[in-house]
C-alpha cells in the first residue's frame, strides 16, 4: 500500500493531520537532541522527514532509517540527496519477524518488550511477570509528556 501512495504521502500526511505531524517531529528532534546521540535508528522512516530533520538538527549524529516500503524509501533517498546528507543518513528496506527492545525501569527492574507482536516481561527473564499487550506505549507516552 505505501509503495503506491509514496509520491503523495507527505502532502496527505500534512493535510490529514492538519500539520500536527510537523509539530511532533520537531518535538522528537528537540528531545533526542538533548541526548547528544551519535547514532539514531529511525524505524518506519517512511519518506525520511524525521531522519532528515534529525541529521540537520543534530550534526554529530548518524541516522539509519529502516522501512518496509521501497517506494517510501525512494522518496526519502531523494530528500537525503537533495540536502547533501548521504554521509550521515543511510536508508534500508527491512522486514523483520520481531522487534525487541530492552528498557531499564525504576527500582532496578528491566522490561524486555517484544514490540511486535506486543509482549512484555518484567524482572528476570525466567521468573518475571509476563504481560500481553505492550506497556511500551505507556513508556513512550511518558517520554513525550515531559
Task: Describe the 3D structure.
The strands form two sheets. Strands 4-5-6-7 form a four-stranded antiparallel sheet, with no helix packed on it. It is an alpha/beta fold. β4 (99-104) and β5 (110-116) form a beta hairpin. The relative contact order is 0.12. α1 (2-16) packs across α4 and α2 packs across α3. The radius of gyration is 17 Å and the shape is globular. It has helices spanning 2-16, 20-33, 49-57, 70-82, 136-145, and strands at residues 39-43, 62-67, 89-93, 99-104, 110-116, 119-122, 130-132.
Overall pLDDT metric:
77
Give the termini separation: 35 Å
Strand content: 15-25%
| Biggest sheet character | 4 strands, antiparallel
Counting H and I runs of at least 4 residues, what is the number of helices?
5
Radius of gyration: 17 Å
What spatial form do the alpha-carbon principal axes imply? globular
Strand order of the largest sheet: 4-5-6-7
What portion of residues is helical?
A: 40-55%
What pattern of helices and strands is seen along the backbone? HHEHEHEEEEEH
Alpha-beta classification: alpha/beta
What's the count of strands? Answer: 7
Topology:
Elements: H1 2-16, H2 20-33, E1 39-43, H3 49-57, E2 62-67, H4 70-82, E3 89-93, E4 99-104, E5 110-116, E6 119-122, E7 130-132, H5 136-145
Parallel strand pairs: 1-2, 2-3
Antiparallel strand pairs: 4-5, 5-6, 6-7
Helix pairs in contact: 1-4, 2-3
Would you kindly provide a brief summary of this structure?
This protein is an alpha/beta fold.
List keywords for this structure.
single chain, 146 residues, alpha/beta, 4-stranded antiparallel β-sheet, 3-stranded parallel β-sheet, 5 helices, 7 strands, 42% helix, 25% strand, globular
Amino acid at each position: 500500500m505505501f509503495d503506491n501512495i509514496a509520491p503523495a504521502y507527505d502532502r496527505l500526511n500534512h493535510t490529514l493531520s492538519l500539520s500536527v505531524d510537523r509539530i511532533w517531529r520537531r518535538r522528537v528532534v528537540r528531545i533526542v537532541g538533548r541526548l547528544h546521540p551519535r547514532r539514531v535508528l529511525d524505524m518506519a522512516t517512511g519518506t525520511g522527514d524525521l531522519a532528515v530533520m534529525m541529521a540537520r538538527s543534530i550534526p554529530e549524529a548518524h541516522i539509519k532509517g529502516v522501512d518496509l516500503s521501497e517506494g517510501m524509501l525512494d522518496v526519502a533517498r531523494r530528500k537525503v540527496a537533495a540536502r547533501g546528507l548521504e554521509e550521515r543518513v543511510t536508508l534500508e528496506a527491512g522486514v523483520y519477524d520481531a522487534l525487541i527492545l530492552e528498557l531499564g525501569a525504576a527500582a532496578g527492574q528491566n522490561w524486555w518488550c517484544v514490540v511486535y507482536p506486543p509482549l512484555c516481561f518484567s524482572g528476570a527473564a525466567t521468573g518475571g511477570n509476563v504481560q500481553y499487550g505492550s506497556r511500551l506505549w505507556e513508556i513512550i507516552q511518558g517520554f513525550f509528556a515531559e
